[in-house]
């Protein structure tokens, strides 16, 4: 039986390999991931950067737009020494590779650098990817961007080692919700097995990345969860649950914003609701909106309609006004984006 070919086209893989092979060891290679990076953004980017180093490339830098703050759980990822703040990125790199970025808006001030680069390779797995970049390794069925990054370093002939594998494992575990989500296929477990076989200790990694937070973060979570609202009639009776967190909440508990990244998980476990909304303040009147669905709503399309993006069951956008204004907008759109 011939399996249908999936993933990026062979020409795109060949072009990406050729783009790297065309460069000498002293070429300037800039790696970029999305604003407010998560485990997949950082892990796929740094793991790939380490792979370039193994190939003899000495001038590799990794960065992301906006405030140069790495969430504590990722601070010890291998390859962290490749990371520089946005203003230290190469001005005119010979090659740019972009990781886990669905749209140019997620590149902030670095979007122009990508557009001006002679070659830009985009590795991504968002259904909402807008199609930027000259070489496109985009596969919405990939569980994480690290799936694509690992394939590219394999095609470049770099063997997996424990450092590269740790980066890719963190990325894979992050985007599959620790191997729980629908995208957790046989291939995902096979990749995880190859990564673990380099000597990783999954228990240690999971504890560090997912199960270690400051006391203040737990107290803050208690408050944010305590104010959650359940609307059983929303989404045609399938239910909506939402809550919000302000900058004042973070200040009061002396916590950085990253501690809110995983707070959507206990909210979305509510049995009485299909759709979950977590509204996180980023500035006065400006909110990072996280959306989740258990299947009834295509939250990616809903988010795109608000200038954001994501996956069918997990997406986000920037909202304005008060949290209730943001939730009013989402509630109004739920029926338009029913699956
Ligand atoms: P989260 O809610 O965990 O921040 O994000 C869920 C998914 O939606 C991720 O794949 C993330 O990349 C995407 N996403 C979240 N916020 C935005 C946004 O403002 N714009 C875009 N294009 N994607 C977003
Ligand atoms: Mn991702």
Automatic annotation (TrEMBL):
Pfam family, one: DHH
Domain of life: Bacteria
UniProt cross-references to Gene3D superfamilies, sorted A to Z: 3.10.310.30, inorganic pyrophosphatase (n-terminal core)
Domain DHHA1: 258-327
Location of the DDH domain: 29-171
Record protein name field: Phosphoesterase RecJ-like protein
Naturally occurring in which organism (per UniProt): Actinoplanes ianthinogenes
